[in-house]
Design a protein that fits this description.
Elements: H1 2-18, E1 56-58, E2 61-63, E3 73-79, E4 85-88, E5 102-106, H2 115-128, E6 133-138, H3 143-147, H4 159-164, E7 175-176, E8 182-185, H5 191-197, H6 207-212, E9 221-226, H7 232-240, E10 243-249, H8 258-272, E11 277-284, H9 291-304, H10 318-325, H11 329-332, H12 337-364
Parallel strand pairs: 5-9, 5-10, 6-8, 6-9, 10-11
Antiparallel strand pairs: 1-2, 3-4, 7-8
Helix pairs in contact: 1-8, 1-9, 2-12
Bound molecules: adenosine-5'-diphosphate and magnesium ion.
Adenosine-5'-diphosphate binds near residues 112, 284 and 316.
C-alpha cells in the first residue's frame, strides 16, 4: 500500500514537473491579498458542540471518528493559499503524560529552503502547545545550533561524539533552549567526519536511531534538521523517523530533485524502516504578491494534493532577523505573521498525526 502511494506521488510529481510551464491557477483559488498573511489567527475556535458521524466514507477511505474537540472543520467558503478549502485546526488537547516521541526528519537535499527555520520555529510552536520537544541538529554546518544561540565550535561534545563514542550518551550533550520544554542536541563541523567514518560500521544506517532510542520516552516530538544532501547522515535520520516533513521554497526550481527525495524516502521505507511515512510538504518563502510563487504553489498542490500542508509560510525578513538574534521567531517576534504561521503549522501537524494514529488504530483492530 505504502509503495503504491509513494509510486503515485512520484508519478504525480514527475507529471507536474514536466507540465510546469502550462500550469494554470485553480479558478477557485483565493490567494491572500497584498500584505495579508497566508494564515489566519492562531486562536480561531471551533463551533462548539458539533460532532461528526462515527465513520464516514471519503473517497473510498474511512475517515475515523474524532471527538468534537478534535474535529477539523472547513471554514465555510474560504479558500487558503493552496487553493483548497481552508480547515480550522483546533488547539490540541493537553497531554496527561509525555512520550513516546514521534520522530520527524525535516528533509530536502536542496539548501536554503527553510529546513532549519522550520525545525526551530515548528519545535518552538509545538513546545508552546505543551509538547516536550527535542531538536536534533544533524547538519555539520550547525545552523540549528546557531539559530538557537549556541556557538557550535565552542562545544566540547556534540551529536558527533554520541554517534562515534560508546561512552557518550545523547543525554550527556543535551542542552535546554530559551524555549520552555524544548531541548537541543547540537552539532558542529565534526559531524562531517561521521559520514565517512560510519561507512565501515555494521548497521551504519541505524546509528542515530540507536542513540536517540533512550530519549523517545522523554519527549513528545523529536525533530531532526537534516543536511542538504541524501547521504548517509540523511539516511540515518530517515531510518529512525516516523515521518518526513519536506519544506519547499516557492520558486521555480522547487520541484527539481523532489523525485529523487521521494525515491530515497521510498527506498528507506521499503528496505530499512517500514514505519517511515510522509508527514507533508510545506511551502515556504511564499509571496502572495508574485504570480510566480502562486503558480509554483499551485504546481506543488497539483503534484502532491493533500500531502501539501494548508499552512503556508510567507517570505519575511523577520526569519533571518530571528536567526541573527539566536531565537525562534515565536520568541523573537511573538506577534509576527511568521510566528502565527508556524503556530498554525503546529496545530495542523498535530491534527495530522492524531488522525494518522486513529486511522492506524482502526486498521489494526
Ligand atoms: P535550509 O536549512 O533549508 O538550508 P534555512 O532555514 O537555513 O534553510 O533558510 C535559509 C535562509 O532563508 C536563512 O537565512 C533563513 O533565515 C531564511 N528564511 C527561512 N525561511 C524564510 C522565510 N519564510 N522568509 C524569509 N527568509 C526565510
Ligand atoms: Mg539548514
Amino acid at each position: 500500500m505504502r509503495r503504491r502511494i509513494h509510486a503515485r506521488w512520484v508519478d504525480a510529481m514527475l507529471k507536474a514537473e514536466s507540465a510546469q510551464p502550462e500550469i494554470k491557477l485553480d479558478q477557485r483559488s483565493r490567494f491572500p491579498a497584498k500584505g495579508e498573511s497566508a494564515c489566519r489567527s492562531p486562536m480561531q475556535a471551533l463551533k462548539s458542540g458539533r460532532q461528526r458521524p462515527a465513520a464516514c466514507a471519503v473517497a473510498g477511505e474511512v475517515l475515523v471518528t474524532v471527538s468534537a474537540s478534535r474535529t477539523t472543520e472547513a471554514s465555510a467558503g474560504k479558500f487558503g493559499p493552496t487553493g483548497r478549502p481552508l480547515p480550522v485546526f483546533p488547539d490540541p488537547q493537553p497531554l496527561l503524560r509525555h512520550g513516546p516521541a514521534r520522530v520527524v526528519a525535516v528533509c530536502n537535499q536542496k539548501g536554503g529552503v527553510g529546513k532549519t527555520t522550520t525545525t526551530i520555529s515548528l519545535g518552538a510552536a509545538l513546545a508552546e502547545l505543551g509538547r516536550r520537544v527535542l531538536l536534533v541538529d544533524f547538519d555539520p554546518q550547525g545552523a540549528l545550533s546557531v539559530g538557537l544561540g549556541f556557538q557550535p565550535h565552542e562545544l566540547d561534545a556534540t551529536v558527533y561524539n554520541v554517534l562515534m563514542e560508546a561512552a557518550v550518551t545523547a543525554g550527556d550533550v543535551l542542552f535546554p533552549t530559551k524555549v520552555d520544554g524544548m531541548d537541543l542536541l547540537p552539532s558542529n563541523i565534526d559531524l562531517s567526519g561521521a559520514e565517512v567514518q560510519l561507512v565501515h560500521e555494521v548497521g551504519r544506517e541505524f546509528v542515530l536511531g540507536r542513540v536517540l532510542a533512550p530519549l523517545i520516552p522523554e519527549y513528545d516530538v523529536i525533530l531532526i534538521d537534516c543536511q542538504p544532501s541524501l547521504g548517509l547522515l540523511t539516511v540515518n535520520a530517515l531510518a529512525c523517523a516516523d515521518g518526513v516533513l519536506v519544506p519547499l521554497e516557492c520558486e521555480y526550481f522547487a520541484m527539481r530533485g523532489v523525485a529523487l527525495l521521494m525515491e530515497t524516502i521510498d527506498k528507506v521505507s521499503t528496505r530499512l524502516s517500514p514505519k517511515l511515512g510522509m508527514d507533508g510538504l510545506l511551502a515556504t518563502m511564499y509571496d502572495s504578491r508574485t504570480l510566480h510563487t502562486r503558480e509554483v504553489l499551485a504546481g506543488v498542490v497539483a503534484g502532491f494534493g493533500d500531502k501539501v500542508f494548508h499552512t503556508v509560510i510567507n517570505r519575511t525578513v523577520r526569519f533571518p532577523d530571528a536567526s541573527v538574534a539566536g531565537e525562534p521567531i515565536t520568541l523573537f517576534d511573538p506577534s509576527s505573521a511568521g510566528a502565527a504561521s508556524y503556530r498554525e503549522l503546529a496545530r495542523e501537524v498535530l491534527d495530522r498525526w492524531h488522525r494518522a494514529e486513529l486511522a492506524g488504530r482502526v486498521s489494526a483492530g
